[in-house]
Amino acid sequence: MEWKACLVLTLLTTSLLCGCLARQEFPAPTDSSTDASIRLTLLTEENPPYNYRDTNGDISGSSTEVVKEILRRLNQDTDLEIVPWSVGYGRTLAEPVTGLYSTARTPERDSLFRWVGPIESYHFTFYARNGSGISLPSLEAARNAGVIGVVRDDTRHQYLVARNMNTLLLFPDDEACVRALMNGEIDLWLGSSDTAPETARRAGVSPEDLALLYQVTQVELFIAFNRETPEPLIRAWQDTLDEMKSDGSYPAILARYGRTSAAGMQPVMAPGDFSVPGETALTALTTLIDQRFYGIARSFEVLALTDEVKSGDWERIRPLLARLEKSDESARYWYARPDGSYYTTVDGLASASLFNRPYFPTVLAGNASLGTVVVSHSTGRSTGIVAVPVMDGNRVTGILGASVYLDLLTGELNDDLPLPATLYFFALDPSGTLSLHSDVQKIGQTISMQGSSEVVSAMEEILHREEGTVSYTAEGWHREVIFGTAPVTGWSCALGWITGTGEG
């Protein structure tokens, strides 16, 4: 919109910044950084391009090369094994000084392992046989589309179980899933768009025989170590990975496999160079975020006064919400009853309930709720909630809601807020969940998943102070951050920039 562009340009008139690329050589870690008597066991699975056995019988892949380079720099020896995922997962939980890669780090798994990473990223994607006639507009639709194949104990399996998806058939690996899909044993495969083409070829199937139906979410991949692995070893591995990211060797490895990474050489600013324009840009960021949620809430407040919405009849309410949603492709609109049952414009009556959602008591008390971050029951994606009560006198008779897709909101902010390449932004909701991030795969992660104690401490400070600045080192780069609180959503919004390498 023109008014939005004018607002942003006005706020950022004085914010033209310059950056330069900086690169610094890092000394190899000394032998004293780890105990040479400790021998690691590292496990992985067949999952190209991350990890697989090549035509020479060697374990290869983008993640494997990263692991081997860490081992080389630390002068460590280890055994690498390819095993079925469920075997590797169980062994890593049970056996000390054992690691498993490439492992999705999720809030549910976070306390089960020690983590080094991220080393890659991964999309959850539903596939069917080409020509099957199946379509999936949502995760809810997958519930009734037939039998879903997934790898046993994989994070995708855990994701579906957590959402009460019961029509599952479990397999040892993705190649088995693809073969089962093609022979009609299953109707859907929850795979990944990052690996599906090569997985299909290895299963003897043309990638063109797979139909990509619905992309659910994206997660970061790590090396997961048994909880009893010594802390100095974990720290040495993380420090070495961070050095690889800042000296350019990590992105070079990924590039050899056609992968890209946000790590590597970064635009750098001198410390303190951004304080004044930073405050201006931060004001623009918080304003745009709050206006996005407040605008939806205002529309709902008007709708809540109509006879159609007051009737509580979904067939009369749906056309009004569908009309709003048509002009807002970055959100899913819904109507809920006080008992928690709800309807979406795409799926109609949903199988889940909203009654235990953290925002629900607030709305039942007659107050609007804006900005709570949840993983949507209906879409499986990280969303920010707008929920407005429908009132009959002092009684709440229903709730008008929107689930704003946070990855798409991030994209909108990137378009509307013309920040220079030297800057990145993120936001935390009041619970400490990342509601926005320039690196969208971090959206939905908790503070505890952000890395070292230094990073976690900085994030906690951002969460618990109204405004201020912090500095910390993450992924090999020293960062400065200016932050403040958005008054409507209550989100802690932050702008960060890199001032040099971690040792600079």
UniProtKB/TrEMBL annotation:
Gene3D superfamilies tied to this protein: PAS domain (3.30.450.20), Periplasmic binding protein-like II (3.40.190.10)
Domain Solute-binding protein family 3/N-terminal: 39-261
Parts of the chain that traverse the membrane: none
Stretches of the chain forming a coiled coil according to its record: none
Protein name: Abc-type amino acid transport, signal transduction system, periplasmic component/domain
Organism field: hydrocarbon metagenome
